[in-house]
Structures are given as structure tokens and as C-alpha cells.
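re the bet — no i am not wrong, look at it urself. input seq straight from the record:
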Amino acid sequence: MKDLIKITEEFVKNELGGDSSGHDWHHIDRVRKNAQLIWSKEKQGDWFIIEMAALLHDIPDDKLNESEAAGWAKLDSFLQSIELDGETASKIKSCIETVSFKGGRSIELDSIEAEIVQDADRLDALGAIGIARTFAFGGKKGHPIYEPSLGVRGEMTLEEYRNGSSSSVNHFYEKLLKLKDKMNTPHAKQLAEERHRFMEAFLEQFYSEWNGKA
């Protein structure tokens, strides 16, 4: 199993190592560390499934590929190349399929492994790291840091969420500040609370500076 993890690490580093949108190798490794922390507290789930899903969760992401289909084909090709048995590969893919926020969609998770990987990924979108990643992604997409004339969007289709007009600050309200209440596991909920408060404090300071009051 250790050999498979090493091969997977190299594959992911090769695919995402140069990313500048907040989905680089370091993000992947942080998600794995978050997952290990949650798993160690929850004491449930198959760690190999969790670790592999954490490592591979951004490979099929439509934001990082020509299309969602192309991303899944890339993932399938890799899993076949390392000759995982069908059941294990299916469990890994099932975890990955349910990770993404995608405009706040609600999707039923069918395993503790999926819950842990989703929580681990969402934790990396919160707190100081989440703030840094938000502005990195916004810059990559050409979004302004903040534009008061752009209102916060409510219910959105995936297309609107991905390609509609927004700002990096609006992204806090459209996604990040919603994540605390979407955690699955008890330990992730605790970790999310602290990171959520940090983001609220950041926004308070941001608006104070923006309005010339700081």
C-alpha cells in the first residue's frame, strides 16, 4: 500500500504541482493531513480509501480540466494503471465525487470515508488558509478583490457559480461562511468553528480598512 501511495503522490504532484489557483500539491497535502486528524479522532473508516481519495480529489475537478468528463477519464486512467481492484477503486471514486461544494449542492454521502474527505477539503477552505486561497483563486479568475456594486448571489446553478460575476469578498458569503454548518463529523465541526470566527474577524477588519475607519 505504501508503494501505491508514493506513486499516487508523484502523479498528483505532476498534475497539480504548478497550480496557482489554490489547488496545488500543498493544498492536497493539507487535505490529507486534515483527513488524518479527523480520522484519528473519529476512529472510523478505511484509512487507505481516505488517503487515496484525499490525494486524488482534485484530479477530476472541472475547474482544473478541459471538462469534467476529461477529468474523470484522467482519474480512471490512473486508477487502472496502478491496478487497484474494482471495489477499492469504486470506493475512492465515490468519495471524490461527493467532495465538491459546486454552488452549495446537497448530496447524500454514503460512507464515513466520504464524510471525512469532504470535511478535510472544506476545512482547507476556511480560516487563514481559506482566505489566502480565496484571493489566489479570485486573481486567477480575474475577479476583483471587492466590488460593492456586485451583490452577493443566492441560489445558483453550477454554471452561474462557476462563471457568473462576483468578487473575492463575495465568495466568503457565497461559500466559505456556509461551510461551518455543512461539516459532517464532530471533530471537523469543532475545527470549523475556530476557522469560521477567524474569517469573520478578517471581514470586520477588511470593511473597516475599506471604509477608511481603521
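see?? The chain has a mean pLDDT of 91. told u. also Residues 186-210 form the longest helix (25 residues). so pay up
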